[in-house]
Amino acid sequence: MINESVREEFQKIVGDDGLYDHEEALVSYSYDAFTFEGMPEVVLFPKTTKEVSAIMKVASRENIPVTARGAGTNLTGGSVPARGGIVLVLTKMNKIIEIDKENRTATMEPGVINMDFQKELTKYNLFFPPDPASMAIATMGGNVAENAGGPRAVKYGVMKDYLLGLEVVLASGDVMMTGRKTMKNVTGYNLTQLFCGSEGTLGIITKIIVKLIPPPETRRTLQVAFKDLDDAGRISTMIFDGGILPVALELLDNIFVNIIEDYAHVGLPKEAEALVLIEVDGPEVAVEAQVEKIHQMCEELDALDIKVARTAEENDEIWKARRSAYGAEAQLRPTAIAEDCTVPVAQLVPMFREVAKIAKKYDLLIPIVAHAGDGNLHPQILTDIRDKEEMKRVEKAIDEISAKSVELGGTLTGEHGIGIAKVGVLPMEIGEVGIAVTKAIKNALDPQNILNPDKIVQMN
Amino acid sequence: MINESVREEFQKIVGDDGLYDHEEALVSYSYDAFTFEGMPEVVLFPKTTKEVSAIMKVASRENIPVTARGAGTNLTGGSVPARGGIVLVLTKMNKIIEIDKENRTATMEPGVINMDFQKELTKYNLFFPPDPASMAIATMGGNVAENAGGPRAVKYGVMKDYLLGLEVVLASGDVMMTGRKTMKNVTGYNLTQLFCGSEGTLGIITKIIVKLIPPPETRRTLQVAFKDLDDAGRISTMIFDGGILPVALELLDNIFVNIIEDYAHVGLPKEAEALVLIEVDGPEVAVEAQVEKIHQMCEELDALDIKVARTAEENDEIWKARRSAYGAEAQLRPTAIAEDCTVPVAQLVPMFREVAKIAKKYDLLIPIVAHAGDGNLHPQILTDIRDKEEMKRVEKAIDEISAKSVELGGTLTGEHGIGIAKVGVLPMEIGEVGIAVTKAIKNALDPQNILNPDKIVQMN
Questions:
Q1: Does residue A234 share a domain with residue A323?
Q2: Which of A143, B45, B149, B164 is the most exposed, having the fewest neighbouring CB atoms within 10 Å of its CB?
Q3: ipTM above 0.90, yes or no
Q4: At A156, which CATH number?
């Protein structure tokens, strides 16, 4: 419970426009993009690291839970205050502190929106690849806390691969800097990587240093429809075996092809079991040759339809179909739960089939979109959260999808995190010893369990 | 102290050919490639994870320090048994368990030698980029424990960037698997990255899963000599600004140019303040254009000499000069201490000048070779460990180089680790809070402080 005098302390730290605790505010920050809800007692908007530190000092003294949050696009309930207390919204700490062209680094506050940052970089002819689907609104702090990925991860990797350093406010309020503006660093434990993906359970990220790379000279996209799902697996293997490392290799199943076509009328062949999007980038001459090579491979596999973008506009046109998937599915059912598992790439097509079996078993509609190039599937469970009976089947289906992914050598989550959604199944992947180590680390850094409690692992 | 009955337990675990404690063996494992020495009581060669686990169970029961070790190429004393006890040599666990072409992963034991692994991969047309200078003898386990880098890190990153998972034996003897054969994974804390670079202080690595990429179609190297050191900084900026991400960009100073030329007679211009090696790779057509572009840039800067390799043999010829640096320096003085600091790339040339000033101040010979593309300098302190007076000056010089690197926004170590060499200066970079967090994590995973004690951080 936050009593009046503690509330006043917080008010003094964040100022008049930094504290909200009227009903509408509390409700607004009680949920994220997942189905789980939790009501906070107060919502705080700090503007500086000093304020975050002061808040954490009071929170730890008073034993108040603190859930950090950016735009709340989290898909596993990671930004929901499971035990009430404080929601710490970092969106007002949204300055790009520095884009250092010479050193190819950028330093920023956690509230910077991914896409704003990417746009700013184009002025410097620099490139930051991580591109989660939510990038138009998601914050960089959230992207770090979740170790966000995106389609471009196949060639360019995910957030962790660009992270050079972090400023972190610990549970105690102490401030720590990890890493520096250097391309290499092996000084001590890799605390930067420990905090990346820790979902706000170990500390509050208040500053981020990332590395940047030169942008590719050009990029080109192919959209290919196959009659047979297996051909999607084949084309993936052929591309990599052909020495081509694509930027992105996306796969949509037949259900999605139909949902999108009915919604957007982009001319997709509705009999296609697989729609594959392939993006390559690099120097003009090399890209041209790669597109040619991939085109030929698709013909060898008797693709139903091959579309090659010749211009940037045509490129965008192709990606529009992929991006409209989430809008299209929303027309069908009120709730979409974005599942997220990653299997070894050779298990991608088998995993598609397993998900289809599970959907049939529980009589659910589960179209799948996948970052096929890295084996990351997003089965979209289309349902209605108000339908209690159906939600029971949904829960069973999710657990079965998780179990099957682990059984096929895969992981519970490729880019959405454990959050609160998968706390129960965590032991399935990391085992008892892994759970013990996770708890030991959590306990070492947050002995009172006030940082985003009940996420990743259940402490008490 | 390891008494007779404990010795027998170990003997039983590792078998007749797995335990050595005669004088010659103990001396052989009392040192690595750094100057510090420590005498073990026993040297054990386990052959399986089960044996490692059994050893750790006895060691933790008996409170015996355990220092894991591969080939002992560590340059900061990381593999020296500072408090005696057990040296755990993992070179007999040297099987490549699997090269999974379809999933582009490999799984291996820690004793596999980096170069053997790389050679094996060529049969599968796959590529593993990390290439530390010691790769011909260094083990993959050591490479993981140190998060090893190498010249190719500019474009391809270091060990951590290829690591998908680890099997680790904890201090207690418990066995944990982190990660899986998937390209993405955000299940729980990133324990894989916490163990990578932890220098054997948190657990014993017994299995390694790495990702692999398609090899580049072709690679080409340029060797360029500049009259002026500043031009080395300029060419680096020009290359990146020109949208080229080189594989490697190495820089040798004038002292090294002379040492190598006197030793190997390869025709280097002895007046050159900087010798720059640039490697680019990719599709043939693109590489050809990049080489042309870089050649032109070098001419604009009035390079003294430009050599372009036209064949794989000529490529190797150029790299021979770089590789002969360590052999050549050994002719001059009996001891070479390979310093290792990394600064933001724009501070590379200033840091070269600072090292030269420090060398002059302490009347020492310190040629520098650098992975210039990522700001990683290796000042080679040429000295004689038996000369007590000179070694005092060497120690002061090392501390000043460390301090200067941190002052310029750099780091204490880019790829050699903290080991025992830099325990004293660690707070300079990570601060008191960083030390406290480091100790908390160490204590959480190794409460008895038996895993490679006195490395990275001093616990008690």
A1: yes
A2: B45
A3: yes
A4: 3.30.465.10
